[in-house]
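User: For my dataset I need records formatted as: sequence, then structure tokens, nothing else. Please produce one.
Assistant:
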Amino acid sequence: MNIGKIRKLSCLVVLLLLTAAVTVTAYGAPGVYVGDQAPEFSLPLVSGENVQVNYGGKLTVLNFWAAWCSDCRNEMPEINDFVKAYGSRLTFYAVDRRESAEKVTQYLNENHYDLPVLLDESGELAKQFAIQTIPTTIVINSQQQIIFRKAGEMTRAELEGIVADNL
């Protein structure tokens, strides 16, 4: 192959890659984002009981996390305090990603956390919500629309500010 053909082929490859990047940027990666309808789902609680999450006309907060994640561990005291204060006025689930019930239970017990924890052992729910980073917190309004999404640590004050306008 001569140099001219290699240059043309290289330009074509670069053009195709740029087109793909622009398409993903314009339309987003698969998943659900702010403004989208949140999918209903069913997962087991850490206790083993299966829960059907259908939002029930109530504000819902999902916090995707894992016990091994240092950022998740950092935010957990604030999340726990938030749930103690607001748990009766909204629906909250900490969604553990790809860990066993035993490991999660041990972590919760060691730290005296009392949170409703769902187990996403397969990671399928995280895929549906396009969770790339943990922790990630998603707030869903009573009409099942995602109104807030943040990858990274959350504080109680941040969550209070978000839910205060939507309770």
